[in-house]
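Hi F.,

I've been meaning to write this up properly since the lab meeting, where we talked about keeping a consistent format for the predictions we share between groups. The idea is simple: the sequence comes first, exactly as it goes in, then the structure tokens exactly as they come out, then a line or two of notes. No screenshots and no reformatting. I'm using this chain as the first example so we have something concrete to point to.
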Amino acid sequence: MPFALPDTQKITTLGALKATGYQPESVKTELRRNLIAKLKTGQSPFPGIWGYEETVIPEVERAILSMHNINFLGLRGQAKTRMARAMVYLLDEYVPVLAGSELNDDPLAPISRYGKDLIEQHGNEAPVAWLHREDRYVEKLATPDVSVADLIGDADPIKAATLKLPYSDERVLHFGLIPRAHRGLFVINELPDLQARIQVALFNILQEGDIQIRGFRKRVDLDILFVFTANPEDYTNRGSIVTPLKDRIESQILTHYPKTIAIGRQITEQEARIKPEQAQVVTIPSLLYDLIEQVAAEARKSEKVDVKSGVSARLTISALENLASAAERRALLKGLPKTYARVADLWAIIPSITGKVELVYEGEQEGAAGVAQSLLGKALRTQFAIYFPHPERIKKKKAENPYQPIINWFGEGKTVELVFDEGDAAYAEKLRAVPGLQALVEKEVPEAKGLDQLFWMEFALHGLAEFSSISRQNLETRLSFADLLGSMFSTDGEDEN
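Output, unedited:
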């Protein structure tokens, strides 16, 4: 039976609680009841989690309705922990507990010695406190050094000495994290990292709901919903989930990465920490959001990236933050009140890529920075073919090439050097100097005006470079576009992409 805050302020004793008609209820029953209420009214039980509406979320809802413990199995950055944390909001806002109980004793069904003694001593005057749902969530990252004492408990010699009790007295016990999560959710992240002998210690808790500490023949009926998260590769790389433990976790739910660029973008925009002052200064074209998501999509299928390790959504989130900061930095350096993010600002997201992809042998040979630039190039190529005529198809059809005026201009030995931190006036002058470039954008992206048109003009140059119609050199402070053939004889010594 849920209670609203005004009632909790009035109910402070066991007798007052009994007068309300309150009856104990298991945490799994509580979750089920609140989920049913949300489903009946059409409310989303997991707001802010995108891309799982037809896959993961229905499976989680079925698991909760079945009152199952859950294991989220998926690669890194697939919102496994976020899903677990969101389940807290299916708990009642407040539940009654015996005041001072370290095990969150239900006043009508205490499980600890402290709780039972408190009721025996005070009867209906036993003090009752109210526990908020956010305090009923306990999370532990599994690491090889986690011990049984950490999770379940151990005899405490200091407590024994202080209270002058023998070790045979259960009052000397120090309870671990799991007993302290009684009547709540307990989450273990990266379960395979937990040593096998520690996993074995969870068998009885999952199956029977009780614990055993140091040979104490005492049954403590814990009421907990367990949620585990695991990466499938951990089964072979760092450890494994022992078979009997997997058998005791009733529902295993497979997570996945966003299935479309649009869904990935929705997640990234929601999670990226773009500061209000940045948003006032920097305008980010819609295409840049898609390009960032495309980089992640390219990484997830790249032969140079260990796809089994996964490419986290954190890559795109930090990439968007870095891109906004690159544009903001340019505005600060040039004293601009506002600026428009450019395609060249994508080179500022390379640090967001290099630390978030695991490379296979071929990728290690090329180097993390080289792989990152390659992924940027593939993303530009993919998105360019969506908005502009495909250069390779034009060649096959032997049709009139709309890019020929641009290619011819560079063929005359002309170059365009876009300095990362140059002002808008110089940026515009360089792009407008290329014959046919503005006309191309006016035809293919007629809605683009002003700085947005300049952005698309730059994007067209990058696209042509990716289709080997012109060349692009990535220098330390700038990008240089030139004739493809001429660049082959360049003695600059810089890498070309």
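Notes:
The chain has 25 helices and 14 strands.
Residues 389-497 form one domain.

If this format works for you, I'll send the rest the same way.

G.
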